[in-house]
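Human: You know discrete backbone vocabularies at least as well as I do. Show me how you would write down a chain together with its backbone fold. No explanation is needed for now; the record alone will do.

Assistant:
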Amino acid sequence: MVESQNAKSKTSDQPSDQGRRTFLKTMIVVAAGAALAGVLKGVVSEIIAPQVGLSTFPTLQLVNSAGTPIKYSDIPVNTPTTWLFYYPLSNDPNFLLKLGDKNGSPISVGPASVTIPADGSTFVFPGGVGPEGSQSIVAYSAICQHLGCVPPEIHYYPPGQAIPGTSYGAAQNNYGIIHCSCHGSTYDPKSGCAVLTGPTSRPLPNTILRYNQDGTISAVGMIGPTIYGKASDLTGGTPFPAGQVTTVVTNTGEA
């Protein structure tokens, strides 16, 4: 009689024990799955970098390596030395140019309609900036629109200078030309970096500058085709901190 009651008691306890075991197994599986998901998320985020960017173009003042604002008078005319700054994101190089004639005198660069041969559309290049009558400073993306070459392969050649590997001799180069030695594309910096020769089918994206009352210069936007290799000018890179400046660097290397 006692054995029967003990057996009955053991039998009645079995479903409860089985339920607990099942619950514990389930929790172990869930915990392991969560841990694996966390690891995989970290791996995927390392492989596929998130698209970081901005919602609007920032206003960034151009400064030198010491943090001092660059003024119109600081920029030499027709210099073969490459002056670069980064905008709108910290990995987007741009040429900074003060254009002049063959005599080395600054020229006033006016607005121009620029055609994009790839699709036949146009945009308006706003012209240069600077003191009244001397709006000679312009800026353009320093990434070739053909296959993405950067300085020193893409380079500014001042007026009166022959361009190696092209038909542009000293006599044909009146106001400076931007040339990419990777595949031979040339651009006209006096006219919104319109295409002079292919294989590129897009002008260089124009960086919009603002001349401030104290003689300093700020970058305030972009116009024209999208920067090469990007879905949008405002994505695909690291923004500058809020209220930050962008430093102009110089590079004497030539292609």
In short: The chain has two domains: 1-48, 60-251.
